[in-house]
Design brief:
This protein is α/β, with parallel strands linked by helices and 510 residues long. It has two domains: 3-98 and 150-246, Rossmann fold, CATH 3.40.50.300; 263-498, P-loop containing nucleotide triphosphate hydrolases (Rossmann fold). It is 33% helix and 25% strand. The chain has 18 helices and 21 strands. It has helices spanning 51-58, 81-86, 104-109, 123-137, 152-165, 182-197, 209-215, 238-246, 299-307, 329-334, 344-348, 355-360, 364-367, 375-388, 405-417, 435-450, 462-468, 491-498; strands at residues 11-22, 25-36, 40-44, 66-71, 74-76, 89-92, 170-174, 201-205, 218-223, 226-232, 263-272, 276-284, 288-293, 314-319, 322-323, 337-340, 423-427, 454-458, 471-476, 479-485, 508-509. Strands 16-17-18-13-19-20-21 form a seven-stranded mixed β-sheet, with helices on both faces. It has a six-stranded mixed β-sheet with strand order 6-7-8-3-9-10, sandwiched between helices. Strands 2-1-4-5 form a four-stranded antiparallel β-sheet, with helices on one face. A hairpin with a 2-residue loop joins strand 9 (218-223) and strand 10. It is globular and about 65 Å long.
Length: 510
């Protein structure tokens, strides 16, 4: 599109021949993209393919080294995110960036709060507008709630609400469904359809190819920073996209049955007032048990309580037949428990530290000699585990923030696997990572079970739950609603139990 393009053209945003390099490494190389009014356009590729760099260029965070950006028929050079927002471009980033000490409403309207007489902030107007948006999304979230303590899924919903409140001409969604359950995803897709009906262009980035085919009309595929495919989705299959993304076929996951051994984890009547009630379950050696349910059902909260991060009011947690001290992650670690959290950047990694230090963090006492840790010992230890998990990096001493999301997740896994845990709790193991890396993580979890590790997985992705788990515990509003064996489990049965409906699959009600 030229600067003098016809204003009636369907193209509302066009990036032409854009390239971007960081420290001499090309993140994007001659990539073009055009977004049309009323259309959902998918952007897919493996972690490190250049998707995030492209999104940051469109959102005004980066400027391309070469190439041009046209918005609304006018050639522009964005000075920053505020200018992109003023030109009608709203970005929902994969990693939420909320101010933790502000309320939900303050986060949504920061810098553009409605004012009353005397230039006082009109909190009632903010709350009313935000409640209307949440109603469209089909979620219940108090606008006055402080952002600190929100789950990743709730933070993502706040970011989505922020974008919707802007009434933008272009809405860019970077992995918006990664932490959402199927019910929340369905509601979000309804919002996307509404945006399209109002002429909004939607750029949808997702590793869930089923969602791409359900909601999008066109697709752009990146690989190693280059454009490899750009066309209508009609006539393509998911396998076609996978081959374009990774340059090879990726076989679908098949469930691997595991024979359970001795009981490793026993949770008895665990209760935290207002969060979860009377939670009872066990996980045996060599068994993969999944916790499923909707956002807000209490899955992550139960896992955090088991590991000792969050308090609980009643009940007990036993590991290897011994009761764990409440609220003590140190006691859990000493008992052989590892914990991969939902939010890897906030709770799983120290982003400013090196890859080596992050891998070694949970093993420092074991690696130290007379209280001192040798850099050579740390680097050798970390390199060994990085190679085992196939972490892709330039230097083991580089900050972990430079890694792609999938490789960051592998670093968190390496940190805990290096302790040889008896029980590994993994919350959203493949959130925001590509299909190739996802298959590697699934194989890794299955191999842990083969080696006799007890694994508790929390996942919002039902195909992942069905492929990994030997048993599935479904939560609804803080209670265990059903227990399903792998043979009994279907997506319909899980969703039915998660929404409080009676299961028709033969699930055992708890």
């Amino acid at each position: 599109m030229s600067p003098n393009a016809d204003s009636n053209s369907r193209g509302v945003l066009e990036l032409e021949h854009a390239s971007k390099a960081f420290a001499g490494v090309h993140a994007l190389d001659d990539v073009s993209l055009e977004l049309h009014a009323g259309e959902a356009h998918a952007l897919v590729g493996e972690n490190g393919a250049g998707k995030s760099t492209l999104v940051k260029i469109l959102g005004g965070v980066h400027q391309p080294d070469t190439g041009a950006l046209t918005i609304g028929g006018h050639r522009v050079v964005l000075a920053g995110p505020a200018e992109a927002r003023d030109l009608g471009v709203a970005v929902i980033y994969q990693e939420p960036t909320l101010f933790p000490d502000l309320s939900v409403a303050e986060n949504v309207f920061i810098g553009r709060q409605p004012l009353r007489t005397g230039r006082r902030i009109d909190r009632r107007a903010m709350d009313t507008t935000l409640n209307d948006i949440f109603e469209r999304l089909g979620v219940r979230l108090d606008p006055e709630r402080i952002a600190r303590g929100l789950s990743i899924a709730e933070q993502q919903l706040v970011e989505i609400a922020k974008a919707l409140s802007l009434e933008a001409k272009v809405v860019i969604m970077d992995e918006p469904t990664a932490a959402l359950s199927p019910v929340e995803v369905h509601r979000l897709f309804g919002v996307v359809q509404t945006l399209r009906a109002h002429g909004t262009a939607v750029l949808f980035i997702s590793h869930r190819l089923g969602e791409v085919f359900e909601i999008c009309q066109r697709v752009t595929v990146l690989r190693d920073g280059r454009l490899v495919l750009a066309r209508d989705l009609e006539g393509l299959s998911p396998d076609d996209l996978v081959r374009a993304m990774v340059g090879r076929d990726v076989l679908p996951d098949a469930h691997e049955k595991h024979e359970p051994g001795d009981r490793v984890l026993s949770v008895d009547r665990l209760t935290r007032e207002g969060v979860f009630l009377d939670i009872c379950f066990e996980v045996r050696a060599g068994e993969i048990v999944a916790l499923a349910g909707l956002v807000g059902a209490g899955r992550s909260e139960v896992a955090r309580a088991v590991f000792g991060i969050d308090r609980y009011d009643a009940g007990s947690v036993e590991v290897g037949g011994r009761t764990l001290k409440r609220g003590s992650p140190t006691a859990a670690m000493a008992a052989g428990v590892g914990f991969v959290p939902e939010d890897r950047r906030q709770h799983g990694l120290v982003m400013e530290l090196s890859i080596a230090r992050n891998i070694a963090l949970a093993s420092l006492r074991r690696l130290a000699r007379m209280g001192l840790l040798s850099g050579r010992t740390e680097r050798g230890f970390a390199t060994d585990w990085a190679e085992r998990l196939r972490v892709k990096y330039s230097r083991i001493t580089s900050p972990v923030t430079f890694l792609s999301g999938g490789n960051q997740q592998k670093v968190v896994l390496a940190k805990w696997l290096s302790r040889k845990p008896a029980l590994l709790i993994v919350d959203e193991p493949t959130r925001g990572i590509d299909v190739g890396t996802k298959a590697e993580v699934h194989r890794l979890i299955a191999s842990l079970a083969r080696d006799g590790v007890a694994v508790l997985v929390i996942s919002s992705e039902l195909p992942e739950v069905l492929s990994l788990a030997d048993r599935i515990l479904v939560m609804h509003e803080g209670r265990l609603a059903a227990e399903l064996t792998h043979d009994e489990a279907t997506e319909e049965a899980i969703v039915s139990a998660a929404t409080g409906q009676r299961s028709e699959s033969g699930a055992t009600s708890l």
